[in-house]
Amino acid sequence: MARATSALLISAIGALALSGCATPIASRQGAYARPIGDAPVISNDTPYSKALICLASYARMYHVKAPRLAVGRIADYTGKAEDNGGRLITQGASLMAISALAKAGVPLVERYDTSVSELELKYANNKLIADAPPPAPGAGAPYRKILSGQIPGSDFYVVGGITELNYNIRSTGLDVAGGKQVATKGTGQITGSLYVMNVAVDLRLVETKTQEVVDVVSYQKQIIGRQVGLGLFKFFGSNVIDASAGEGALEPMQLAVRSLIERGMVEMVANLYGAPGPRSCMAEDPLGTTGPTGGYVPAYNNLDQNNGQTRSDPSRWDSARDPGLNPHTRY
User: Fold this and answer.
1) Mean per-residue pLDDT for 232-250?
2) Which residue range is the domain that position 259 belongs to?
3) CB-based contacts of 281: which residues, under 8 Å, 6+ apart?
4) DSSP assignment, residue 87?
5) Rounded distance, CA 51 to CA 101, Å?
6) Rounded to the nearest 5°, which phi and psi values hold at 243?
7) Is 32 among the domain residues?
8) What is the DSSP letter of 155?
9) Nearest 5°: phi and psi at 224?
10) What pLDDT is attached to residue 331?
11) Chain centre distance of CA 210
């Protein structure tokens, strides 16, 4: 029995060593090891993404003249931090709001990060930027002109914050152990736990010219987590087996924030578009510029090949999965 156990352990260690394929000698491609995992890039949508895309279709169908929006600071006001100093809640809520508004087909202007625009405006003001190549090497080129009113303004802007993160609203647990009175007969243990927490946001829509707050939403979402485990301890003569297995999962906290942001944007955009509600949704436009990944302004008339829906295709542009790039792909 002891020899069989030792052989099994040696085989397991050897298999783990071989599976890693890490060596001190680089391969012909210049890497020591090949990373595991080949999952494709997929759209990062929530249960409210389809509603946002629906609102974009509604605006196109009824020729709604959408106001121009900007997104300001949507900060984390929970004050919660990890033990190592990192923040528990995403600091990218403003970026999530921009993506959500793009899914809804809302015209956007950049106000969150204007560093590049401000720098180029400064260069243009000093006649240092040209939009065309110089006619000859070393020769000057016509510099970029600064025109009055060349930057479009926003009609409304979105600001707010993540205001709540409450741990362990409620939890339940189970811990059961059993076995014979004699230690050599072995013992077993089963554990399980379930807990609930929540996160909340407060958002507001402000009219840019008058600074009037025209829309306010406050939402919270509960997050669930669970953990189960199984253990076994037993003597086999002079040998001991101590085995355990477990499984745990926590609903993604940052995805919960994205869901909150998208729900808030759905309500605000539906009000701006005058949409009567979910019943106004119709079939998605297959050639639209909005989709689960966001929205864009087409540079060319090629919506039959590149549109909001093709951007969410997980196999598109993947060298191992897209038949257009890999003729050996099989589905």
Assistant:
1) 77
2) 44-128+152-166+199-221+252-289+298-312
3) 51, 54, 57, 58
4) B
5) 11
6) -120, 145
7) no
8) S
9) -115, 145
10) 44
11) 34
Q: pLDDT band at 320, cuts 50/70/90?
A: confident
CATH number, domain with residue 53: 3.40.50.10610
Cα 22 versus chain centre, distance: 31
- Whether residue 12 is predicted with pLDDT greater than 70 in this model: the reply is no
- Residue pair 102/44 in contact (Cβ under 8 Å)? The answer is no
Give the angle subtended at the CA of 66 by the CAs of 54 and 310, to the nearest 5°.
40
Closest CA to 71 of 200, 165, 212, 208: 208
Quote the crossing angle between the two packed helices 253-273 and 49-61, to the nearest 10°: 20
Distance CA 285, CA 287 (A): 5
Question: Torsion angle of alpha carbons 305, 308, 312, 313, nearest 10°?
Answer: -20
With respect to residue 265, please indicate whether it lies within any of the assigned structural domains: yes
pLDDT at 296 over 60: yes
Q: In whole angstroms, what is the distance from residue 196 CA to residue 331 CA?
A: 40
**Which amino acid type is present at position 86?**
G
Taken as a whole, the chain contains a residue count of 331
pLDDT band at residue 19 under the 50/70/90 scheme: low
Give 135's DSSP letter.
S
Q: Which strands, in side-by-side order, build the sheet including 187-207?
A: 69-76, 156-179, 187-207, 213-236, 239-250
Q: Is residue 279 part of a domain?
A: yes
The answer as to whether 264 is a domain residue is yes
- The domain tally of the chain equals 1
Residue for token digits 């609203």? 169
Task: Report whether 295 contacts 54 (CB < 8 A).
Answer: no
